[in-house]
Specification:
Number of helices: 11
Number of strands: 6
Strand order of the largest sheet: 1-3-4-5
């Protein structure tokens, strides 16, 4: 099996390796000068050229930024501004398409790599680092765009049985950018989903930026994720619950017998009460039955609430 270092080296030697340079703009300029290809007298001219080039791209991307903000304001779920004109459905669609195109253009210029839909679906289907049963309905989105940067491996330690640690090598994305545009309210109503049960606003667009995300835990980033326990977790909770329920039932058995006898007495008659070894006087006196009912409700209710919690 290849070592961690071998796998990392092979990944960066691949033809489609990332173009991201992990240095600041100032350091890149100095590294270019240290290369020795320029005369010392040309160093200042090179720095001036870099300043002009920086200003050019600053204003060029500022235009993209302003257009992104203007178009995103129409889909912002947390907007605190209003529009002074009505936007037609056609214009809204055009602005949405422009927003998505600008978003992709800027991320690609920032050396982010698009995760294709099929790769994303495969990542969602893989077993995650966090042992949970998860489900994300990708049909909920009009747009689902995910970009990453820094596809790396990292070693982590997980605790097992409180005292034993297990070392794992996991695949991480150093940066993840996610754009989600949810379908409209009518779509979720057709799924019999109430708006108050949603963790998002239908028809709106969400932008997320994350750091150091395990590749196979991407589903945890989605606001429409449904999380439940695995079968193993259900058994670990259920079997002890059944064992704990037996003493509670045995303890409340006298109350159960008295209540059952009262029901039979008032519905069928005295003859069936005798089979439960309960005196008729206990049933005719309403207070013991009431106390038994309350005791049973408190005992079983408290047990049920404890198990649910």
């Amino acid at each position: 099996m290849a070592s961690y270092g071998d796998r990392t080296q092979a990944r960066w030697a691949a033809p489609n390796r990332e173009a991201f340079i992990p240095y600041s703009r100032k350091d890149i300029i100095e590294l270019c000068l240290e290369d020795g290809q320029l005369l010392a007298s040309d160093a200042d001219k090179f720095r001036e050229f870099c300043t002009i080039l920086t200003a050019y791209y600053h204003f060029k991307f500022h235009r993209y930024l302003e257009r992104l903000k203007d178009n995103y304001a129409l889909f912002n779920p947390d907007a605190d501004t209003k529009t002074i004109t009505d936007i037609s459905t056609h214009d809204l669609t055009d602005k949405e398409d422009t927003l998505v195109a600008d978003f992709q253009h800027i991320l690609e210029r920032a050396n982010y790599i698009l995760i294709p839909q099929n790769s994303l679906e495969r990542a969602l289907a893989e077993e995650s680092l966090i042992k949970l049963k998860t489900q994300v309905d990708l049909a909920d989105f009009d747009h689902l765009i995910c970009y990453c940067r820094g596809d790396i491996y990292e070693k982590i330690k997980l605790k097992k049985f409180y005292f034993w640690e297990k070392e794992l090598t996991i695949n991480l994305f150093s940066r993840v950018v996610l754009l989600l545009k949810f379908k409209n309210k009518a779509y979720f109503e057709s799924k019999k989903t109430k708006s108050k049960d949603l963790n998002f606003t239908p028809g709106k667009m969400y932008l997320y930026f994350y750091k150091n995300i395990p590749k196979y835990d991407l589903e945890l980033l989605f606001p429409n994720i449904k999380i439940s326990m695995t079968l193993k977790d259900r058994l670990l909770f259920g079997i002890p619950a059944i064992g704990a329920a037996i003493p509670v039932i045995l303890k409340t058995l006298p109350q159960l017998t008295l209540i059952a006898a009262a029901i039979l007495f008032f519905t069928v008659g005295t003859v069936n009460v005798l089979n439960l070894n309960v005196r008729e006087e206990e049933i005719r006196d309403f207070m013991p039955v009431l106390v038994a009912t309350l005791s049973l409700a408190i005992a079983l209710g408290g047990f049920a609430f404890k198990q649910y919690s």
